[in-house]
Every structure is written in structure tokens, then in C-alpha cells.
Amino acid sequence: MEKIEYDQFSVTILPPATTYHPVDGRKYTLVMSTKDSNYHLAIGFKYEMELLNEETEKILTAEWQPRLGEYILTGRIDFGSKRNGEIVWNNSHKIQGNLTEAISLMVKADKDLYAHVPWLLDAPIYIEIDSNTHKYKTIQYYGTPRQHLI
Q1: Contact (CB, 8 A) for 19 and 8
Q2: 8 Cβ partners below 8 Å, 6+ apart?
Q3: What would the DSSP string read from start to end of the chain?
Q4: Distance in angstroms (rounded) separating the CA atoms of residues 77 and 29
Q5: How many Å from the N-terminal Cα to the C-terminal Cα in the chain?
Q6: Cis-peptide into 124, omega within 30 deg
Q7: Do the Cβ atoms of 12 and 3 come closer than 8 Å?
Q8: How many domains does the chain divide into?
Q9: Handedness of CA 112, 113, 115, 120 (dihedral sign)
Q10: Which domain holds residue 17?
Q11: pLDDT of the chain along its 150 residues, tens only?
């Protein structure tokens, strides 16, 4: 297991995944702590849902998938499954502000992959924001990995 730690951000690459393998189905689990603004990213063949604990409310999952001959990075963040609409609305605005930063951290943490597979730099990133309240459900475009590496 390879582990990289930065100030308030840690990355774990879970075997048999490596910094260069796999591309198809490469999964990211980014946990954002609500108490101390720490981030933990796990990269592997499966989502690391056991990272979620009571102190951590926000989790972003993403995966590289081939679609129509090119790759896209699709992700999902869920909030509002047990909350009322007003709390969901407040959390959605907080998360929107942090989501771009979270995606940038995820992309930068995996920069060795882009050196090995450079065509992923221009692949689109789509994040689904999921909620029980229908009006807060969206799929948003978040640019490309190249834009997040700047």
C-alpha cells in the first residue's frame, strides 16, 4: 500500500492498484471531514466506503469509465438522504464551494497516472450531486484534469 501525506490531505493507493494501473474502473473515494477540514483519498479497484465514519459526512466517489471511445471521469456526492430540505440547501452551497477544491486534490494526487496516460488530461469530469429532494439533484461538468492541475 502506497501512502502519501500532505498537510490535512492523505492519499492511499490500495493494491493491486498502482500509480499507473488500472485506468478502466480506477476508483476514487475522497472523504472530507466536517470537523477538521481533513481530506483522505483512497485509489483502487473498489470504493472504500468503510472510511466513512460519524465524524465524516461528505464523501465523493469517482471512477474512470470508457464511453463512446473516450474516457470520462464520473463522480457522485450524496447528501440529504436523512435531512430536511433546508439543511440540504445549506449543505449544497457549502459543498459546491468545496467540490472544485476536492476534485483538484483528487486530480493532483494522481498526477503520475496522467504522465503515463496523457490523453486523460483532456477527458471531461462530470459529478452527480444526489439528494432526496429532487430540485437539488444535478449532474455538473467540472472541466478536465488539465484544468485542475494548473
Answers
A1: no
A2: 36, 37, 38, 39
A3: -EEEEETTEEEEEPTT--SS---TT-EEEEEEETTT--EEEEEESS--GGG--TTEEEEEEEEEEEETTEEEEEEEEE--TTS-HHHHHHHHHHHHHHHHHHHHHHHHHTHHHHHHSGGGGG--EEEEEE-SSGGG-EEEE---HHHHH-
A4: 10
A5: 28
A6: no
A7: yes
A8: 1
A9: negative
A10: 2-149
A11: 444 445 678 899 999 999 999 999 999 999 877 677 778 899 999 988 776 665 556 788 999 999 998 999 999 987 655 555 555 555 556 666 678 888 999 999 999 999 999 999 999 999 998 877 777 788 999 999 999 998
Distance CA 68, CA 115 (A): 23
The pTM score is 0.83
R_g over Cα of the chain: 15
Residue found under cell 477540514: 37
Residue with cell 474502473: 25
* CA-based nearest residue to 86, from 132, 55, 54: 132
